[in-house]
Each structure stands twice: as structure tokens, then as C-alpha cells.
Specification:
Its EC number is 6.1.1.-. This protein is 34% helix and 14% strand. With 321 residues, it is α/β, with parallel strands linked by helices. It has two domains: 160 residues, HUPs (Rossmann fold), CATH 3.40.50; 110 residues, Glutamyl-tRNA Synthetase, domain 3 (Alpha-Beta Complex). The strands form five sheets. Strands 3-4-7 form a three-stranded antiparallel β-sheet. A two-stranded parallel sheet has the order 1-2. A two-stranded antiparallel ribbon has the order 5-6. Helix 6 crosses helix 7. The longest helix has 16 residues. Bound molecules: glutamic acid.
Length: 321
Amino acid sequence: MKIRGRFAPTPSGPLHLGNAWSALLAWLQVRQAGGEMLLRIEDIDGPRSRQAYIESIPEDLRWLGLDWDEGPDLGGPYSPYRQSERLARYEELLHVLKAKGLVYPCYCSRAELAAIASAPHGLAAEGPAYPGICRTLSEPERATRAERKTPSWRFVMPAEPVAFEDLAMGPQSFPAGYGGDFIVKRADGIYAYQLAVVADDADMAVTHVLRGSDLLDSTPRQLALFDALGLPAPRYAHVPLLYGPDGQRLAKRHGSASIGAMRQSGISPETIVGWLGYLAGCLPKPEPAKPRDLLPYFRLDAVPPGPIRLEPAMLDRLGIR
Ligand code: GLU
């Protein structure tokens, strides 16, 4: 059976060096195994997505020398490959979860949640875990609250610990209920990333997900959703994030770390890929390379395990300030 991987960019910003890093590694993992790659545009959050990035991200990926077999531009057996065109499928899965009693309406506002002190920690990106206030509301209480507020929908995190083998980071385990009950559909009607990504990876027969380690703590949620929906889960590999010499995450920098800006300033794709290949342990020196030149040398276990701090020489060479 062929392995299937994906690029899954969110078009809320340009492709930057950090995205290019995980895209290159995902491509190497799949192409080395003779597998199939797909491009999926994760524009589920309409207001944050921009048409300009929907166009420039695939262009930048191609410019770097990456390719894919299915995607919004190429079509494929699992079309459409844009989340904004798959809303009916997410609604259908939300119904399945409702029918199983695995989601509940939540009327808590952001301000109410912010006021709750001493809650256990949720995901790194989110702050405190949701303490389950609306999980146990009675039907009359729900009816009263529904008069004032449209609810979000929260998934009940199972009461068992989650363990899985990460292909890059090794054995992982998370305690029962890790991160708290999480939102699958927001009060403004937008389906949450967690639900959309699970639906898509299952429907598009993705077998291998390689992505940045900022999403490691989302994995227990996604595995719980696959399980609840009776859908097959992929294997995961989480790779370290790139940081500047100042310890700041590269993704947080502005324009100069974007692939588009490097391209405009005359840097070659081979220079970028060569540096990334060097960081991934494929090359002894950061010599110019095309993605396919790295194929014989790529090994997930040679990728450094921890956060990668870029040397000033690399930032200078790539014009990142
Ligand atoms: N769309 C997400 C991002 O750009 C990636 C989601 C995933 O790989 O699961 O950060």
C-alpha cells in the first residue's frame, strides 16, 4: 500500500521558512517511500484566509521544487481539496457526534472563561483547559441560556489517557482528558480546525502526517475524534520548529522570513532547500540543493529532536532580519 501525505497550509499569511521546512520534510517522507502527496488548503476560518495567499502558497511550494499529485489546482479522487468547500461534510460529522452524545452546546463567553483562575493548563496555544461548565447543564438550563447566546459545540474528551508512537519524537503519552473538552464548531458557525483536519485526513486517505511540533498537543484531540467517529487515524511525525538567534519563533517574524520575500530578493530556491536539508541532517554542509537531491539522505531520526535555533550566518544568507 502506498503511503499518502499532505501539505495543509492555512492561507492566513505567506509561506514562510518554517512552513517550507515542514513542507520539505513531509515531501521527503512521502517521496522517499514512493508515496502520494496532496495539497489541501485549510481555509476553514474564512475571515482569516486571503485569496492572495491561496494563490501564492502553492506557487512558492512549486518554486522550492516541491510537487504533489492531488490538490485544488490538479483535482484528484478526493476533491474538493479546500476546506471551505467541504462544510457539508463537517456538518455531517458534527451530527454523528451529536447522535452519539459526544458533543454538547457551550454557552460560556471568552470573558467568562478568562475569569476562571487556577484551571489546569490546556494546549500551549490556548491557555487554561475548559473546566466543563456546560457539560452537565440540564435541558431547562440549556434552554434558558440558548435564549441569550448561540452556543459553540464542545467534544467530550474521553476519560482515558492517550498514547501513540510519533515517528519523529518517539513514544508520546497524554493524561486522560488532556487539554479539556474542546470546540468542534464555534458560536460564529465556523467549524474548528480539529474537526476539519480529522475529517479531511480520513476522507483523503492520508496515512502519514508530518507537521510542526506546535501541533503535537492537538494530536490527542484528533486521535479522540478519529476514534469517536470510527475513522482510521494516520501515523504522525512532529518535527521541531525553527527559531531565530533571539529565541523568537520564526513564524512570528514578519515579511523577511517569507519565501516570497527571499525569492524577490534574488535568493535561489536551491540555497533555501540546501540550508533546510542541512538542518534536517541530510547534508554535511549547507550547499545548494534541490529537494530531490536530498532524497537519498533523508532520515527522520537524523532530524534534531528539539527546537532548532538558526545561526546568524543562515539568516544573513537568506536575508532574514
Ligand atoms: N493548517 C495547519 C497549519 O498551517 C496545519 C494543520 C496540520 O498539519 O494538521 O498550521
